[in-house]
Here is the input.
Amino acid sequence: MAQLSETYGCAPSTERGRGILISGDIKSNSIVYCNGRSVIILYLDRPLEISVYGEHAYPVTVARFSPNGEWIASADVSGIVRIWGKNNEHVLKNEFKVLSGRIDDLQWSPDSQRIVASGDGKGKSFVRAFMWDSGTNVGEFDGHSRRVLSCAFKPTRPFRIVTCGEDFMVNFYEGPPFKFKHSLREHSNFVNCVRFSPDGSKFISVSSDKKGILYDAKTGEKMGELSPEDGHKGSIYAVSWSPDSKQVLTVSADKSAKVWEIAEDGSGKVKKTLSSPGSGGVEDMLVGCLWQNDHLVTVSLGGTINLFSAGDLEKSPLSFSGHLKSVSSLAVLPGQNVVLSSSYDGVIVRWIQGVGYSGKLERKENAQIKCFSATEGEIVSSAFDNKVWRIPLLGDQCGDAEAVDIGSQPKDLSIAQLSPELALVSTDSGVVMLRGFKVVSTIDLGFAVAACTISPDGSEAVVGGQDGKLHVYSINGDTLTEEATLEKHRGPITVIRYSTDASMFASGDSNREAVVWDRVSREVKLKNMLYHSARINCLAWSPDNTMVATGSLDTCVIIHDISKPASSRVTIKGAHLGGVYGLAFTDNCSIVSSGEDACVRLWKLTPQ
Here is the structure.
């Protein structure tokens, strides 16, 4: 049996020049955000407990808890809203086609009966309010001429709805059934976010013109604005009220968050400016915020979530982050509880078991990553050009990277773990051997190469072809000598790995089959490993050489015991939405996996 032990979550999807609207649930102290087709529920006081909902067919843009905390409404770029349960396997309550384009914001009514959604109507309606159980309309929303970026529901009766958007307008609606009351033209640029105070007395709109304006919630008349003194120097992307309705939190493209005191007359002055840790680059622009209980949550363009304490604003924040894109490879550092994961956009994240996020490894050359391998003191990676990078690991940071040009694009990469200066890189038609930063031999093998591996001691290599054949080579000095050709696979080889003691090796192909071979006799040791339903992407051996695990495009991880027939396997179904791309054992009873959903998961194996 395999049980999910820890989930290291992905970062929220962000977009340059736009805010993201995150929401939370006060009772469970959790926040909900989106990445790709996934909706992620993160518990702020226990960040390793993450719940992921992946039933949307298109990228999700916004998700909100209902006021009672039991349901979540999430919307995507196709204009569909799905309403599903927070607990018990996220059972679907309803799905409605609300707008004809992307939905940017949605909000529940305080009685959990109605939902208002806004976004891009593609020439039709930009805003729609509907009953949560039947989907029937509850009003007409006129008055906008361009995409509506945000909407809000007044939390007390009489109900009101406010919307704002790219036409620089804030519109006020009365109801239900809701009808247009009047427009407020106070801003001179895109209005990014609008929010009612929890006590229902005021609402605030913030804009790319660096202004925040407060209005009376009952009548929609302007009351005051945030003082320009010590104000934001860039576009304000999001705003959130404190639970007592006396303060607001704003975030901006100027990389700062500000806490404002709001007076009874609707004017606001800065109480504290919160500067987030970071290098000060573009990725540190702040694009989302939430004030929940004692937590002030800010989200940066690079996907870092910072948690400040509302009771002690001087305290340095707690940071969480993760990958924004598919996690393509994993490495476990020997002798440490550290897992390194890399995504193709060039981000390498360091995770500590039991702790979670432990920072990103900053590299001077932030090249993309296609192949990635790590030993105790070094990372070797390759991208979509002709270079192989060697990056020294200095604790939790990277040293100065050096590149070797190998003349053609690398397809696969393998390090001899016992003599890590030796690396084997496969290209389209052959292999390149590296010692340190020197190319010692480039060998054209005369067939289309798909994958390769080198034994831990560097004395043998196995190269897999597009034709499904495995070619075994002995390595003497800088030359390869072919020893045998093994035929069993019926599709192109995708991955080959030696066992830890190098007595066996395993191979997987795109025709969903894996085979375990004995290294000495070159006979098949475990066959009929045909339980995936799609291409095998990755493969890992346990440290004691008794188990081999395969990860596939079919979202499953299958763990085989070498001493038992292939049918007595352990299957983890739905390990990663969109497919599994990285696998590694951390010890004999724990395996870590990564995939298309940008998450990393740790599974505990229990004897059957």
